[in-house]
Amino acid sequence: MKLSTKGRYAVTAMMDLALHEQFGPVTLADISKCQGISLSYLEQLFAKLRKHDLVTGVRGPGGGYRLAQPPEKITVADIVTAVDENVDATRCKGKGNCQNGARCLTHELWCDLSNQIYNFLNSITLAQLAARPGVREVAERQDRLHSRNVSKASAA
Amino acid sequence: MKLSTKGRYAVTAMMDLALHEQFGPVTLADISKCQGISLSYLEQLFAKLRKHDLVTGVRGPGGGYRLAQPPEKITVADIVTAVDENVDATRCKGKGNCQNGARCLTHELWCDLSNQIYNFLNSITLAQLAARPGVREVAERQDRLHSRNVSKASAA
DNA sequence: GGTAATCCCTAGTATTGCGGTGGGGAATAA
DNA sequence: TTATTCCCCACCGCAATACTAGGGATTACC
Question: What is the spatial distance between Cα B16 and Cα B11, in angstroms, rounded to a whole number?
């Protein structure tokens, strides 16, 4: 059982967005630099996030991405499911036809687990995440390292 | 995010074991037939389960596998971690060196999620699982279909 | 209007791990 | 002795992941 880095990257990128949006749209180039994610890969992830109405792109110089909804409305589950097709632990996609058209021995278990995971991720919003002391600390270190933040507002 | 079928198969097989152990050791051939899992693949899974002291093999005719511990002592987490190396949602294996030796923005989140999943799976024992009405029902259907159960006791 | 910055799209590609196969043993009950 | 079982190891095809490459559209700024 493992979380793909796809989901991790997407949440990380969305966090970056939430933390810097106040200074205008955030470019993927910035996120790529600060979070250490390949630019082209980011673009692919953001294509999915856009399709799911989680972000909106702003073209042209000074452009970038914005959250399409207030961070209080976006949950981690929203992000993960947007990029990571299946958050499901069952094989049968919840249909119950796991074994020759009937439920397998452990069908219920995996349904429960899937729900458990989903509920957990769905109970955490971007806003809550961004407000964590540990997160703010890491974000400030990153900003210092790449001289972002205030300088970005004047640059744009 | 997805659970590999490896973990699913292992839990299913262990359930089969728990449900039929009363009639003597259970052969992998039986499990393979009833649960629809390739025999050779099962052997690989059971090699890991054996290494983790969850089952013991009995060689020779009439042999098979037994639970190495009472089903009340074996949790789903035990099984999944035995076959599925990483139940960890973080990239850094909990070390916190995800980004250039420092914690990444979402490190805490994935740690929390990993714990959440682990605690859930660890709170469920094989015995509890086997006692579920839904499970008993499916098991009985399977037994009828493959004429196992009582006939097995006399066959062995 | 031109230019540069940005998003946007599509097509690749290397690697990895999963799920599965095959074959050849060693132990042991009958 | 033989059949049955566990046990071990090496391989293989496939799909998905993580990533690269390149070529557009759109738009702010001069």
Answer: 9
